């Protein structure tokens, strides 16, 4: 669930809870009720790993009233996204955030964060191969995608990403080999190397 900071509009995104495959669905709240005309199926045939059993969906609003929805998909092993236009009240088509995670390396979770000073967004996502991926939305398109970890604990939810007031972003995850939390910093231009938090052993 995400809400516009400048209005009472909210977007609820959910996945089907079928045994094998389902879809990702979005509903728009106008401040009083969910509007049927704006309810959409963003994608069918997405594994239940998208959100019914794992945190494979997230949504954030931009300052202009538009919103970004991201979700995991077994179709091509990718993270996908769609944009809600808050002015025209229409959804974009579904596009890919990331390149392929590799054969069988399904993305499990996804977290999205918005820069408080701009329409930039940052994303972190682990996959079934224990890799941790990060990427940046620059206001127009996704880029600066990077694999920052190859021994993350991908099958458990242990990731997060936030922006600081200075516009830097921090992504965190659990290293399954060291049993410690690690992080990277986005400084507005590039990602740092991964850094281990020394006293974070689980």
Quick summary of this structure?
The protein is mainly beta and 202 residues long. Helices cover 0% and strands 46% of the residues.
Your description of this structure?
With 202 residues, the protein is an all-beta fold. Helix content is 0%, strand content 46%. The chain is built from no helices and 17 strands. The protein has strands at residues 2-3, 10-15, 21-29, 40-47, 57-61, 67-73, 78-85, 90-91, 95-96, 111-114, 121-126, 132-137, 142-149, 160-163, 169-175, 180-186, 195-196. The strands form four sheets. Strands 5, 6, 7, 8 and 9 form a five-stranded antiparallel sheet that branches. The protein has a four-stranded antiparallel sheet with strand order 1-2-3-4, with no helix packed on it. Strands 10-11-12-13 form a four-stranded antiparallel sheet, with no helix packed on it. A hairpin with an 8-residue loop joins β16 and β17. The chain is globular, with a radius of gyration of 17 Å. It starts with a strand and ends in a 6-residue tail after the last strand.
Key terms:
single chain, 202 residues, mainly beta, 5-stranded antiparallel sheet, 4-stranded antiparallel sheet, 17 strands, 0% helix, 46% strand
